[in-house]
Amino acid sequence: MRNLILSAALVTASLFGMTAQAAEPLEAGKQYVELSNAVPVAVPGKIEVVELFWYGCPHCYAFEPTINPWADKLPADVNFVRIPAMFGGIWNVHGQLFITLEAMGVEHKVHKAVFEAIHSGKKLATPEEMAEFLAGEGVDKDKFLSTFNSFAVKGKVEDAKKKAQAYQISGVPTMVVNGKYRFDLGTAGGPEGALSVADQLIAKERAAK
């Protein structure tokens, strides 16, 4: 928890003017960390960019208007993946919510609405509360509840937890490029800086092929 608080403090600082850091030459140990053990990517042959997030994180919510247009314009050789960070409690509940929506194929339709609901005061802390809210967004309530409690979703929850551990994250939002390079808004110099670091690391991986 202490690491999470420190990470949040770094992110807060980055949001108020650390963007100059992004202009500096990219350097391991400075803007990003190179993982000692690379984590396998979801789609072999593509350069993977992972964003680890939590629906309840204000910095993740603030990052949405910046990262979404960027992700939408990524070239065909780049695979963008969101993974919910699960540090216990409500983090796990919201992580399972995200994975359920992905499994149902509706995450892209309601992701923004879920974020906005939580940051406008809705807790969405139980499957029933989630199902009731999502019904208003056009998601079948019964199908959501059965999928939420399914064996397949629970397996994907465990996979997401293992991935986050392998990335050695201590806070969110955190990004990982190709299972090798980890960075956050604090180290990268804010939202725009993070995307600049991501672009440079994508180019590095593309050149290495």
Automatic annotation (TrEMBL):
Protein name as it appears in the record: Thiol:disulfide interchange protein
Signal peptide, first to last residue: 1-22
Single GO cellular component term: periplasmic space
PANTHER family attached to this UniProt entry: THIOL:DISULFIDE INTERCHANGE PROTEIN DSBA
Protein keywords: Disulfide bond, Periplasm, Redox-active center, Signal
PROSITE patterns documented for this protein: THIOREDOXIN_1, THIOREDOXIN_2
Keyword Protease tagged: no
Family to which this protein belongs: Belongs to the thioredoxin family. DsbA subfamily.
SS bonds (residue pairs): 57-60
Residues annotated as domain Thioredoxin: 7-169
GO molecular function: disulfide oxidoreductase activity
Principal cellular location given in the protein's record: periplasm
